[in-house]
Amino acid sequence: MATESTTAGDSQSIYEQLENYSWDSDREFQGGLSAILGPNPSPSQLQDLTLRARCFYLSRKKGIPIDFDEYKAYLSLKEPAALKPPASASTSTSILTTTQRLQEEAATNPHSSSSISKMAVTSTPTDPSQCSSAATAAGPQDAGAPYPASFAEIVALIQSGAEIPGIRHIPLKVIGYENSKPSVLPKRRKPWEKDVPEEIIQGRGPRTFGDERDVLTEQEYPEGV
């Protein structure tokens, strides 16, 4: 019981940190969040992905484990209205302003674009299961496409060493090579080989292989030379 009380107290402290953290003033978080949400996120995307990004970001920043599902359940029990999209009109304007500012900096400073990409990648979950949940919340995908839903999910799969669906593995060894046979097609006669015997053209005549190929052939010269 004491352990459960301690765990509950720790979770309560973590949840208070999530609520009291100044998310709007954190430049790195806003840059990564704007890249994850995209240009026109729906309210459900805005709610789920923002909460999920906050849990991941604070967990990475503080080095503490945060369970997103437990935090979401905590919010629903504490105040059902808290599960409304956390980005209101003012927050949406803040995200849009941050995105525009980052784009302007990328246009004036090419080196800043790489840092923006890094922020977007580091702000995404590294657990493939979390990425799958985020992709599901983001909306239905094309059922016929075997590939992951987003680039962020591919990055997470690579970082975790998991297999990426839709990628075919090609073995290093050529299959069937040991059963291959040399070509049996006859060699074609060249235009200047009209008078050359066929067996020599095909490499079966004398002085074409072995020691005989180096035998000196005596040449006949005209008289007086």
TrEMBL record:
Q: Where is this region: Disordered?
A: 101-143, 183-225
Which InterPro entries does the protein's record reference?
HTH_76 (IPR058841), KPWE_PEX14_dom (IPR040554)
Q: What are the Peroxisomal membrane protein PEX14-like KPWE domain coordinates in residue numbering?
A: 146-194
Residue ranges occupied by any PEX14-like helix-turn-helix domain in the UniProt entry: 13-76
Comp. bias (Low complexity): 134-143
**What Pfam families does this protein's entry cite?**
HTH_76 (PF25871), KPWE_dom (PF17733)
Q: Which spans does this entry mark as compositional bias, Polar residues?
A: 109-133
Put simply, this protein is called: Uncharacterized protein
Q: Which organism is it from?
A: Diplocarpon coronariae
